[in-house]
Amino acid sequence: MNNEKKIPYKIYLEENEMPTQYYNVRADMKKKPAPMLNPATLQPVTEADLTPVFCEELVKQELDNDTPYFDIPQEIQDFYKMYRPSPLVRAYCLEEKLQTPAKIYYKFEGNNTSGSHKLNSAITQAYYAKKQGLKGVTTETGAGQWGTALSMACAYLGLDCNVYMVKVSYEQKPFRREVMRTYGANVTASPSNTTEIGKKILAEHPGTTGSLGCAISEAVEAALSKDGYRYVLGSVLSQVVLHQSVIGLEAKAAMDKYGISPDIIIGCAGGGSNLGGLISPFMGEKLRGEKDYRFIAVEPASCPSLTRGKYAYDFCDTGKVTPMAKMYTLGSGFIPSPNHAGGLRYHGMSPILSELYDQGMMEARSYEQTEVFKAASDFARVEGILPAPESSHAIKAAIDEALHCKETGEEKTILFGLTGTGYFDLKAYEQFNDGTMNDYVPTDEDLQIGFDSLPSVER
């Protein structure tokens, strides 16, 4: 117990202890993620395929499966100091409330105006766009956290920022939209009439609430149709997991200072950026045979790509204009219910995480949204942070694991990612508090519609 008393409620690193390199977990994977494919040729994509869409330096990062570390440019390190290092928090109050012998820690990424971890990659992608001499970037956003983060990064660097926001979130979260506009971004509800693919989707699905797949299609089309623009994105691709490794590197450095080693590491999973970033350095140790950890990915039951999806090649967008990726997917045609975890509504999962899950290196589970909001409410009442609905999936799993330890008497150490705050999600909290929130779990027949849209690729 004496050692335990030395662990503060919040562990902060000094600025000179922040990571100066990103860690690429692919370098330690014996079986690499399957390559993305050019949809026209069904051959692995090349730099030449991707550079019309993405920034040149980011393409190199995307295709590099072997370099273990990438230097973080000094300008990005300086920007990070505005809100990093972020705290690693010992959830003493939650432990007391649960009366569990487990020790619970969370890495809190909500200490910036974007309200989430998304800024870690937004500034990096914007930096390389600026360095390339581009005028601006286009992107999609679900809950709005990525769009907000990119708006901030573009404002800082003087880049134009065009955001296609999933229509249901555009309508549910007008204040998130206004933060983006305050930072100078142009925000369009997707699907829209401003792109050919948007018009096509609206014609086929009148009144649709949209999806991240739709918004990606529009953002890619917009980037390709304007000189001096490229497309950037907040999750799924390997470059984003690479940038988000700062989360896990900081968490591991903070734990190492106090001789703490987690037994279980938990993150919410939509496209995979925060989960991949949090687990990367720990997964590296597991892949190298140095240590063992349990990794748990948590997703909404309404969009269950890992727990009920298929591991197959699929388009990353609804309009089928992007390269195909091998991932756990519900099909690019899957339109999820308008649940409130907007950042977890993507039809597929990061190819890195998909491959690790397929190898049995991590577990996955899904929860319905009412039980997730119950966990969020319980957490807010004892830890003093109003969590984002996305993050609350990880909270729910952490509570479940802690209660299991209470039953068994095990003193396990649990680490989870608290990706952001829920102050723009009060409409959802209102529905939960009023008792009007519904759960929606797609039937096998519902999912089959998405699976029927999977391309036939023999590889």
Automatic annotation (TrEMBL):
Annotated source species: Anaerotruncus colihominis
Cofactor(s) needed by this chain: pyridoxal 5'-phosphate
InterPro entries hit by this protein: Trp_synth_b-like (IPR006316), Trp_synth_beta/beta-like (IPR023026), TrpB-like_PALP (IPR001926), TrpB-like_PALP_sf (IPR036052)
Pathway participation: Amino-acid biosynthesis; L-tryptophan biosynthesis; L-tryptophan from chorismate: step 5/5
Keywords for the protein's UniProt record, in alphabetical order: Amino-acid biosynthesis, Aromatic amino acid biosynthesis, Lyase, Pyridoxal phosphate, Tryptophan biosynthesis
Membrane-spanning intervals of the chain: none
Role description: The beta subunit is responsible for the synthesis of L-tryptophan from indole and L-serine.
Modified residues (N6-(pyridoxal phosphate)lysine): K118
All residue ranges annotated as the Tryptophan synthase beta chain-like PALP domain in the record: 83-420
Record-level GO cellular component terms: cytoplasm
Protein name: Tryptophan synthase beta chain
Keyword Phosphoprotein tagged: no
Claim: Lyase is one of the keywords in the record: yes
Cross-referenced NCBIfam families: PRK12391.1, trpB_rel
Family note: Belongs to the TrpB family.
Subunit structure: Tetramer of two alpha and two beta chains.
Catalytic activity: (1S,2R)-1-C-(indol-3-yl)glycerol 3-phosphate + L-serine = D-glyceraldehyde 3-phosphate + L-tryptophan + H2O
Coiled coil spans: none
Molecular function GO labels: L-serine hydro-lyase (adding indole, L-tryptophan-forming) activity; pyridoxal phosphate binding; tryptophan synthase activity
Matching Pfam families: PALP
Record EC number: 4.2.1.20
